[in-house]
Amino acid sequence: MSKQLVLIGGGHAHMVTLARLRSFVDKGFGVTVIQPSEYHYYSGMGPGMLGGTYQPEDIRFATRQIVEKKGGRFILGRAWRIDPQKQLVYLEGSEEEIPYDVLSCNAGSFVPRGTIDGQATGVFTAKPIEELLHAQQSIMEMAASGPITVAVVGSGPSAIEIAGNVRQLCTRQGAKATARIKLFAGREFMAGGPPKVRRLARTLLEKKRVEINTSGYVKQIEGGRIRLENGEDYPADIVFPAVGVKPSPIFARSGLPVGPDGGLQVNEYLQSIGYDTIFGGGDCIYFAKKPLAKVGVYAVRQNPILYHNLMASLTGGPLAKFSPGGEYLLIYNLGDGEGVFAKWSVAFAGRLAFTVKDWIDRRFIRTFQE
User: What is the pTM of this model?
Assistant: First the structure.
């Protein structure tokens, strides 16, 4: 049997590998991609899809089509556990065993639901991105029938982008006056962010009539209510928990070495520190040398290194080191064709910021769409 390369997930860190999948097949290697959806959505454009700027097909990659067109095998399913000794991947709800010689994990991340009551309805997380489509439909239906209150919990990039784009969606539905958008930002808006960026983002959101609450952290989401640690209680028809993400639990479940956040612990070659046949990239890893923020730019920078090292591992070539690089560009899409741009000491808000982000995002996605 030929050597087998298995990819868990077709996310940002696997884009180059998928685009060059034929190079593995031409060398006689089998390639299998495991993913719970036939499509992979680009998270950087997710809030824009929620607001109606983009259609679903504008922001997704046809993973199954790409894999099968290039001679690989696509498995529609969720990788549940890895056995590093036997070099097998097990699928959720299936007895099938997927053997590998080299495994690469881009299993993504999830939004913790610890504050959410199990019976709570109208709660939508930013990941998986498909959740935003369901949220969009619910908001449109509610906004069409009367007043609506949407609560966003958090004040990081995902939270502020969701808040701004929910406002855009409600305005487009003719509910500008009857929709209340509330951002529960904990005790400080965009805590830890550059002061100028925080000021620009807050000013822009408040201009859009997004109500920003900084009186305390959310303790519980239950029965259409938001409860804060200080006892304050607020009603909400729709709730978006956006308090950061955690890596897929598959690695801890499999007994692999993980970092403090549960991500696959990798070395400078993006290789598991415990098993040299396992690699990873994106939100699901813990880069031991320098812990990285959960932002897409690192997955994009990991792309060529991961492709090189997967091929090298199969062919016996030397591995390449990954360097996270320096400061990266951040642009927040806050809806209505406006955003906040930040890099180095340069920061500004307005239409130009969104125009730059839109151009970069569309160029990136066109590169890998087929």
Answer: 0.93
